[in-house]
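ok so i was messing around last nite and threw this chain in just to see what happens. nothing serious, just curious
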Amino acid sequence: MDGGNAVEEHRGALGFDLPSVLAQLDGHRPAECRDAVETIQSHVTEQPDACLPTVPKLRTLFEGPAVDCQADAAYCLAELADHSPVDVAPSVDELAAFVDDRPGHEATPALVRALAAVSSDRPGALADHVEAVETALETDVPDARAAGATVLGRLAAETDADVDVVRDRLATLAADDPDATVRERAEVALERFP
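result:
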């Protein structure tokens, strides 16, 4: 009985039932996943530490067939990466693969933002994902292109990643992108190339 009270007190302190949310994400039933992601999304800004244990489960939503809450899950991962890049860094392989395979997906811009946040603390985690980040430069979403340029600049300055393959693309963005932020980030990225 005492354990039940402790769990209830823990739930009250969080504002949501973390074990239930994790179980819903485990089940991979669309309605349950959507409910779990909505719960995380409603708490991630105010309680990011409480939501960090959901990162591995959120990552699994990008490993299999598409589910209708991937864009919201990507938003949650981006927010959590902004808060704690080190906790999202183990998810880089799956997130980069999704970006590379589905550049036009509505979840891609938020995933690129998550990758950029991870690169601020762990650029080496992205060293093997230059192609995926280059894919982000081709999206229609300026924020994703800007974040991709930021990642490439960090990779050029802080890792041994082979980023020369994207130098021309960054130069084109710096000169011709219709978005001023993208042009600025591409210029900064190029300045970081050896």
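not much to say yet. The chain has one domain: 49-191.
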